[in-house]
Amino acid sequence: MSAELEGKQDQLQSDAAKQAVQTVLLQSKIDDANRQYAQQQADAAGSANPGQSAFRK
Q: Which pTM value belongs to this model?
């Protein structure tokens, strides 16, 4: 019984570690997508007001 519980504990820890890695990877993808979206919005705003872009620099 003790060995079985230890095996299950190892599996739970392994599953938790895998879940943590997946969470970090997903968050990284979300952050990248948000940065890309923000850049696209900034680019679109810049092209909508081309006369003002000289004042931004």
A: 0.62
Separation between Cα atoms, residue 44 and residue 47, nearest integer Å: 5
**C-alpha to C-alpha distance for 39 and 26, rounded to whole angstroms:** 20
User: Can you tell me the distance from the alpha carbon of 52 to that of 49, in angstroms, rounded to the nearest whole number?
Assistant: 6
pLDDT over 90 at 56, yes or no? no
Question: What span, in angstroms and rounded, lies between the C-alpha atoms of 44 and 21?
Answer: 35
Q: Are 52 and 45 in contact (CB under 8 A)?
A: no
